[in-house]
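Hi everyone,

Forwarding the result from last night's run.
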Amino acid sequence: MAMSAEQSGRLARLLSEHTDRLTERWTETVAASLRGRLSQAELARQVRELHRSMIDAGRNGLTDLADEHGGELRAVLAELSTNRARQGFSASETAISVFAVKDALLELMEESRAEETLRDFVAFSALIDQMGLFTFESYVRTREGLIADQAEQLLELSTPVVKLWEGVVAVPLVGTLDSARAQVVMERLLQTLVDTGSPYAIIDITGVPAVDTQVAQHILKTVVAARLMGADCIISGIRPQIAQTIVALGIEFGDIATKASLADALRHVLRLTGVETTARRQRRES
């Protein structure tokens, strides 16, 4: 049920004529639901801002939150939702900050004997319900964005590319390698090869619990991409169980060098680059 222009005006007058009483009761209700997790000063500021926006919208003839007169009110609700989502409040705690005005309005309107009181309250409640729904939707969008950003950050942290030696970089993989993560691995490896000018890359799968056809395909694509950049790849961390699985699945790594451990892979690369390690020098001298 949309409000009429007359009802919108009456709401604005009611809110403005009883500002102190309304905002005090409104703030008390919200504060009780937040249990001290937001300072009283900040909560009071948010309530006053919502209160002012509702008055302005009502004076402008707001009949529906979605119409042109609701722009500022929607902006205030969106800001409230965004801040609460980033501060870790729940969707319910955020929505209560809007719905709490109903109790304050009802107390005031119960004292009135006007004929239109009931109809007005029904119309006001419908508007507040729209505000609550808009707040909830804004909160959800913000939370989904935050979760997506955090997931991307975790994905990047879980796929580091480290420089082991001059001309040698390594990608130590831990956990399951799915398509999204494989894409991140490829992008980070290729960018590191460009940045460092390294001709060798070691892909260490010691921390990968299992290698199936899909995981193997992801690894092979990464190797091919690195080769197109002029770098040779060595795969390390081929444990006995993984070796048996690879054989059973009929997966062919072709001419890609494979080693049992990261240390073996590094020694292999150092031999290819002509670097003499301490162990080799000791064997030569003896």
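The longest strand covers residues 200-207.

Cheers,
N.
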